[in-house]
Amino acid sequence: MTGRKLALFLLLPVLLAACSDSGDQKSAGGAANGGAPQKPPQAVSVVVMKKAERPITAILPGRAVAFQTAEIRPRVTGAIKEIAFKEGSEVKAGDILYQIEDNTYAAAFAQAQATLSKAQVSIPSAQANLNRYERLVNSGATQIEYENAKVTLLQAQADVEQAKAALQSAEIDLDLTKIRAPFDGVTTISAVSIGNIVTANQTTALTTLRRLDPIYIDLIDSSTNLLDLRAAMASGRLSGDPRKADIRLKLEDGTNYPLTGKLDMSEMAVSETTGTYQIRALFDNPDDIILPGMYVRASITVGNENGYLIPQRAATRNARGELSAKFVGADNKVETRTFTVSKSSGNNWLVTDGITDGDRLIVDGFQWISDGAPVQPVEATVNEQGFAVEKPKVDEAKP
């Protein structure tokens, strides 16, 4: 019994090793025969391409400029007697801004009135004297006396006209002591205080008046874009008149200005240093939201063109600036397409070549997949912000 137990004890490790080798071989055989699970294709959101007429937009930088600007300066000399406006407030055309001490101008006006009255008194006497010599010119009065009477009357009339002009000048100077707003606008900080002496037509402005409603937006565009636009309109590819297009603004904080503007004028010259030209747009600004000097970005719809839209979030550009995007081929594998010509259309790029109706554009998840990789396309839509939104699934079993 002892010998049998010893033999069994010695054979046990050999049997265990044989079982282990048999299990390893089965495992290896299963892997070789493809029994291990494979990674499923990655799901990607796609948009089905369809050609249609789309708006062509241009995004241009610009600055706000006051519709009217006037530097207020005195036209007569004197001491500031009163400042009749609140700095930074709105004033109406004709409102008094400054009152200059007017006592000397009032005295000059009164003196001019007296001089006119004195000159006017001499006219009746000179006229009566001329009439008398006219009756006596052939019966005792000489021709010389008649001519002298005529000259006296003409001189008296001239003195009256001169006195009237002096009175008008004195009245103007007296009125100019009241410095008025030339138009509706907003004032700036006053450069003088009560008691300061100001002089006629001095170089330093007392304040600046700006009209902010409406307001100008000065936009800058390259001459290259101008030539492209003209060529597209001449060829008939672009429909619509850019001069009548609505212009929309995005303010410095990223918010959209609620009102649309219109093109006011275009500079018919290109800058020799920057190669750009200026476009001026006009916007209503009833709440003074836009202030002179503000930086804005304007979106102008210059026309419409037939093509395909590629969301900006679904595309990249290579070192040469060419647009590229990824599509799902007929075999559900990824392929990259490059487009040499593309135009801006809102939050999208518009292309006219290299795409056909029904092509599937990858709009989400394309950053982590390479060409030739198998994918599982999931149809989606793109919202106004350019984000992919998966289409809701429809249960065909339900009516």
TrEMBL record:
<dbReference type="Pfam" id="PF25967">
    <property type="entry name" value="RND-MFP_C"/>
</dbReference>
<keyword id="KW-0732">Signal</keyword>
<dbReference type="Pfam" id="PF25917">
    <property type="entry name" value="BSH_RND"/>
</dbReference>
<dbReference type="InterPro" id="IPR058624">
    <property type="entry name" value="MdtA-like_HH"/>
</dbReference>
<dbReference type="GO" id="GO:0005886">
    <property type="term" value="C:plasma membrane"/>
</dbReference>
<dbReference type="InterPro" id="IPR058627">
    <property type="entry name" value="MdtA-like_C"/>
</dbReference>
<comment type="similarity">
    <text>Belongs to the membrane fusion protein (MFP) (TC 8.A.1) family.</text>
</comment>
<dbReference type="GO" id="GO:0022857">
    <property type="term" value="F:transmembrane transporter activity"/>
</dbReference>
<protein>
    <submittedName>
        <fullName>Efflux RND transporter periplasmic adaptor subunit</fullName>
    </submittedName>
</protein>
<feature type="domain" description="Multidrug resistance protein MdtA-like alpha-helical hairpin">
    <location>
        <begin position="110"/>
        <end position="177"/>
    </location>
</feature>
<dbReference type="GO" id="GO:0046677">
    <property type="term" value="P:response to antibiotic"/>
</dbReference>
<dbReference type="InterPro" id="IPR006143">
    <property type="entry name" value="RND_pump_MFP"/>
</dbReference>
<dbReference type="Pfam" id="PF25944">
    <property type="entry name" value="Beta-barrel_RND"/>
</dbReference>
<feature type="domain" description="Multidrug resistance protein MdtA-like C-terminal permuted SH3">
    <location>
        <begin position="309"/>
        <end position="367"/>
    </location>
</feature>
<feature type="signal peptide">
    <location>
        <begin position="1"/>
        <end position="17"/>
    </location>
</feature>
<dbReference type="InterPro" id="IPR058625">
    <property type="entry name" value="MdtA-like_BSH"/>
</dbReference>
<dbReference type="InterPro" id="IPR058626">
    <property type="entry name" value="MdtA-like_b-barrel"/>
</dbReference>
<feature type="domain" description="Multidrug resistance protein MdtA-like barrel-sandwich hybrid">
    <location>
        <begin position="69"/>
        <end position="208"/>
    </location>
</feature>
<keyword id="KW-0175">Coiled coil</keyword>
<feature type="coiled-coil region">
    <location>
        <begin position="146"/>
        <end position="180"/>
    </location>
</feature>
<dbReference type="GO" id="GO:0030313">
    <property type="term" value="C:cell envelope"/>
</dbReference>
<feature type="domain" description="Multidrug resistance protein MdtA-like beta-barrel">
    <location>
        <begin position="214"/>
        <end position="303"/>
    </location>
</feature>
<dbReference type="Pfam" id="PF25876">
    <property type="entry name" value="HH_MFP_RND"/>
</dbReference>
